[in-house]
Each structure stands twice: as structure tokens, then as C-alpha cells.
Amino acid sequence: MLLVTLPPLDRLYHSHGPAVLRRARQLLGSDSEAREVLHDVFAALLEKPEQYAGKSSIMTFLYSVTTHHALTRLRRERNRQRLLKRHLEEPGSVHANGQARAELRELLRELPEELATVAVYHYLDEMTQEEIAELLGCSRQWVTKLVARLKERLEERR
Amino acid sequence: MSQLERSLRRRGSECASDLQLDQLFTGELSAAAMRTLRAHLASCSACAGRYAELDAERAGFAEQEPGLEELLGSPLEQRVPRPPRALWLGRIALPAAAVLALGVGWTVLLRERSDQNESESPVESTRAKGAGAAFGFVVRRGERSFAGEPGEVLHPGDVLRFTLSSALPSYAGVWGVDALGRVSPYQAGAQLAFVPAGRQQALPEAAELDESLGSERLIAVVCSRPVPASEVGAALGADPGAPRLPDGCSSETLAIVKAPR
């Protein structure tokens, strides 16, 4: 069976909002920026709920949408500088492996969008290649190629 | 493996991703996947720890984060247009309207239909023991809508909307059990849906039947209190014939047949 509608948005917010906020925080390293993404994701759903086509689970869909919103925000140069500055000034605002995540954010800015998205799913979410394939709507073999290409890019940075 | 990769990755390849754990919380995993993951959590301290972290984060979200209306800066009613009342069920192809953000639209429309068709015999199953609630469903097929009956022959693409008639407010969800005993939910919410008291109150989500064919049992679980959908799903998955449901819950069953068009 396939779910064709979203549950009421207020219920969705309570059930899925924590995951949206967490992944935005992981990507952006900032509580305030993450809350803006939380706002953007749910405001967009309110205005245009048909963006959820029922082809995947709601959580999978929201992971994908949140990644897109956060990457878009991360790629804005001014915003990137602000985030990096905040990271340096407020070390308590990032996770224990915050240095690596800050480096990942730098990398995400440089990578083509498809590779950046795979980097998020692979390194940050530690998803299996099957899960990444489902999120991207492509084959697992293609994900394997993208991950290999991603690792090459990482090696080049060393 | 690069330094960055070593720094970022923290779990073994056999461990659950956050996505899987999140789906466990929201009841979006199949019964089989849920069983597998719960078994893994029982034996893997890393994943159990991560599960506990996410659980605490969810509790923190409910306590610390603003409500949706506050987040969006205005009441939801002012932001989402309601569909025309005359188009009962006619909007199901438009999730924007079907969602209605507040979950009231379907109920309003269903009440309207109920009022218009008092002389019609509503299609409901027998009452669940002790629950005082009766379960039914409405089928949307193309442009046509009709009340489903026990044993109803349905087709891929049919859209089902479940209803509950109860003298008391309750919490409900519906699961399907196919001929092989596989259990799958008809809703995505983490909790059973709140259903107000009244006749033929619509549950908030609709579901479209996929291409799978054969007989299926629809099991409606009705509870007197909020219950995680995952708990009910796990109980049904363990024994769909005689599930050990959480306290305050009861179930009733309707059979349907999914056949080609």
C-alpha cells in the first residue's frame, strides 16, 4: 500500500520535527540556523504539501528535504562565513567531533550537489548504500560509484 | 580511509542508521524490520545508546521547541484554504487540501455526508468487545465514492479512508494483514490518531492500494489513550491472529479482497 496523504501538519511536526531539527543542526552546526531550516521545511509543507508524492516514507522524504534546505543555506557564501566564525567563537555549539563536521561543511560547499548530498548521507547519517539509493531514487550501483568518487575527493584534500 | 572519514563515522556497518531509528520512533518500519531492529538494539550497546539519545532529543523537542503555529508565526487556519464542502472526497488527489494541516477537513466533510445520508445504512463492522466503537471504511474509486463492506472486492488504485463510530473520544489506527501474515500499517503517524466521539469520524490519513493482490484483513485498533503506533504494530506483527495489545486497546477486523481491475 502507499500512503497518499500526509498526516495533519501539527502532528507531523511533533512526530518528525525532532529529526528535521537534528539533521539541520548536524549539517549547519548552529541551533539558530537549524531552527530556520525547521521553519522553512514546515512552512514549505504547509504551502505545498503535494511535494510529498507518497513514493517513500514520510521520514525519508523529510530527510531529503531537510538536506536540500540545509545544503542550500550552507552554500550561501555569507552564511558559510558566519557559520565558520560562529564555530570558532562558540566551540560549545558544535558536537564533540565538531572539527570534523566543520571540515565536512567546508567540503559540502565545494562538492557538486549530488556528491554533497551523498556525503551527507554517507558520513553524517552513516546510511547504507541501499538507503541512500532509496533517498536519491537511483540504483545502489550508482551510489557505490558516487561514494567511490567522494572518497577520491577526500583523498585529494589530504 | 581518510582522517575525515575516520572522525565522522562512529558506527559499525551492521549498526542502524539514524534514519532507521527515526522510522522506528514514528512507526514507519515494516513489522519485520521493526522486529529485526529491536532485536539488534537489544544486543548492540552503540545502537541502544544512540536510540536513547534520540529518545531524549524527542522529549526535549516537545518540551523546549515552539509549537508549529508559533514557529510559523500565524495560526494554521489562516494559512491553509479549506476545500469546497460539496466536493466530499473529491480532493483526495490533492494532498494539499487533503492534509488540511489541522486534520479537521475530512472530519467536517464526512460529518456532512453522514448528515446527508442518514437514511443510508452506514457500513460498519460489528462492535469491538468493550470498546463501544465500530470501524468502517469509505472507498474512493475514480470519481466515485462508496462505503466499503466486509468482504469488499477492491482494486489497485482504490483509496481507502477509515472511519470510527464511538461514543467516546479514542485513538485508532489500522493495519493490514495479507494472506502470508505480513502486517503493514495504513498510517505513518508515530501515535495512534485521535478520533473524536461521534458517528463515522474519519481517521486523518487515506491510503491508496498498491498492486499487490489477494485477501487481506484490516485490523482496526482502538485505544482509550494515546499509544505509540510502533507498540501496536509490534503486537500485531508478533501474533496478528491474537495480538497482545497495550492496555486500554481493543481490535476488530474486516476482510477485503484485492483483485485486478
Strand content of chain A: under 5%
Distance between the termini of chain A: 47 Å
State the order of secondary-structure elements of chain A, H for helix, E for strand. Answer: EHHHHHHHH
- Rounded to the nearest angstrom, the radius of gyration of chain B is 20 Å
* Oligomeric state, counting identical vs distinct chains: heterodimer
How would you describe the overall organization of this protein?
The complex is a heterodimer of chains A (158) and B (261). With 158 residues, chain A is an all-alpha fold. Chain A has helices spanning 9-28, 31-47, 58-75, 77-89, 98-110, 113-124, 129-136, 140-157; one strand at 2-3. Chain A is globular and about 45 Å long. Chain A starts with a strand and ends with a helix. Chain B is α+β, with helices and mostly antiparallel strands. Helix content of chain B is 31%, strand content 27%. Chain B contains eight helices and ten strands. The longest helix of chain B is centred in the N-terminal third of the chain and has 20 residues, at 45-64. Chains A and B meet through strand 1, helix 1, helix 2, helix 3 and helix 5 of A and helix 1, helix 2, helix 4, helix 5 and helix 6 of B.
Features:
heterodimer, A: 158 residues, mainly alpha, globular, B: 261 residues, alpha+beta, six-stranded mixed beta sheet, 8 helices, 31% helix
Write the layout of secondary structure elements.
The complex is a heterodimer of chains A (158) and B (261).
Chain A: E1 2-3, H1 9-28, H2 31-47, H3 58-75, H4 77-89, H5 98-110, H6 113-124, H7 129-136, H8 140-157
Chain B: H1 3-8, H2 18-26, H3 31-43, H4 45-64, H5 68-72, H6 95-99, H7 105-116, E1 133-141, E2 144-147, E3 152-154, E4 159-166, E5 170-178, E6 183-185, E7 193-195, E8 198-208, E9 214-223, H8 229-238, E10 249-258
What is this structure, in a nutshell?
Chain A has 158 residues and is mainly alpha-helical. Chain A has helices spanning 9-28, 31-47, 58-75, 77-89, 98-110, 113-124, 129-136, 140-157, and one strand at residues 2-3.
